[in-house]
DNA sequence: GGCTTGAATCGGAATAATTCCTAACTAAGA
DNA sequence: TCTTAGTTAGGAATTATTCCGATTCAAGCC
């Protein structure tokens, strides 16, 4: 779950580069938010990040967190994911990868699978639009939730 | 976009069967909601269905629509989908298929691709949990949105 | 180091989507 | 027909997210 320091470092460098390129001001808030996201592999949602970041910058506002995250995704520095109807989750991992999503608790785990990376859109979709990314989602019930299966039901 | 009558018919039959099996009462509301979903291929969200259904049952409440839809998905009669951060969309099409999702407007189109159906989870995910379905999502910009590309921006 | 200025932030209000609550209703079985 | 457990209506509540106006601040310039 914890991202190795050298990976965090390289993500940060990319962030600095892309941000400068885009003419963004390097505010304390932006840096703290990006760092917090870059150092975790848990695909947190905005509220979770807000709570974590607030420990370091107690006056930060939710709006700033949301605005920054969507801004980062527009720059291609983070990806959004999540199960429909649940909160958006954010991911600073730009390596080719896919996800296992628990349909009960919403947890997301990275899945690396070259055979998924190799997929290409069937010819017919060309007329629907331009495909930018192929995301494979393995949906199911995570080990934790499977354990609780017949207890507290009523999931979502 | 319109589902052929004989397909609607067979969906309805399955609905009746599964509902009876599950011991659900066959209420007018449930039937109307399911029919409305079964007859369209547009993957509508709950609000859209609510508006359509209200034309036939003017006193129906949003809650009933939501409750019914999630109930149907629990029974495996509908699938939920959509892009994170947008509304949940519902789909009564249970044939093996995948989706093209427009990241600008949220529109979803069905994609049939046997090569996607054949995928199987990489061995490693076994320890993460039980995979129930593999969903391939082609994300990009639909033809409509591509047209408007440099006009009204700001879409999210 | 001090100015200037447009971008960025704060924080609370507003909105959108969804769920909760409970009194009233109704399908289905006896 | 009677009973009753499941279901619904409708408005309130909750949750996630965005908006907005006043204030602050990063960064280029002197």
Explain what the structure shows.
Two copies of one chain form a homodimer. Chain A has 156 residues and is an alpha+beta fold. The first copy, chain A, has two domains: 5-81, Winged helix-like DNA-binding domain superfamily/Winged helix DNA-binding domain (Arc Repressor Mutant, subunit A, Orthogonal Bundle); 95-148, Ferric-uptake regulator, C-terminal dimerisarion domain (Dna Ligase, domain 1), CATH 3.30.1490. Chain A has helices at residues 5-21, 28-38, 46-56, 62-74, 114-117, 143-148, and strands at 79-81, 89-91, 98-102, 108-111, 129-142. In chain A, the strands form two sheets. Chain A has a three-stranded mixed sheet with strand order 4-3-5. In chain A, strands 1-2 form a two-stranded antiparallel sheet. Mean pLDDT of chain A is 89; it is low at 150-156. The A-B interface holds A 70, 80-89, 100, 102-103, 109, 111-113, 115-116, 119, 121-122, 124-125, 127-143, 145-146, 156 and B 70, 80-89, 100, 102-103, 109, 111-113, 115-116, 119, 121-122, 124-125, 127-143, 145-146, 156. Strand 5 of chain A pairs antiparallel with strand 5 (129-142) of chain B, so a sheet runs across the interface. The structure holds a DNA duplex (30 and 30 nucleotides).
């Amino acid at each position: 779950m914890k991202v190795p320091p050298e990976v965090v470092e390289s993500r940060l460098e990319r962030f600095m580069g892309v941000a400068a390129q885009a003419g963004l001001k390097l505010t304390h808030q932006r840096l703290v938010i990006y760092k917090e996201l870059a150092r975790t592999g848990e695909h947190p949602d905005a509220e979770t990040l807000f709570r974590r970041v607030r420990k370091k910058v107690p006056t930060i506002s939710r709006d700033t967190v949301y605005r920054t995250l969507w801004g980062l995704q527009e720059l291609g520095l983070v990806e959004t994911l999540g199960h429909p109807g649940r909160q958006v989750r954010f991911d600073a991992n730009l390596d080719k990868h896919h996800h296992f999503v628990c349909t009960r608790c919403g947890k997301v785990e990275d899945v690396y699978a070259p055979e998924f990376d190799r997929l290409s859109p069937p010819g017919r979709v060309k007329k629907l639009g331009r495909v930018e990314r192929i995301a494979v989602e393995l949906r199911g019930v995570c080990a934790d939730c499977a354990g609780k299966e017949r207890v507290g039901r009523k999931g979502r």
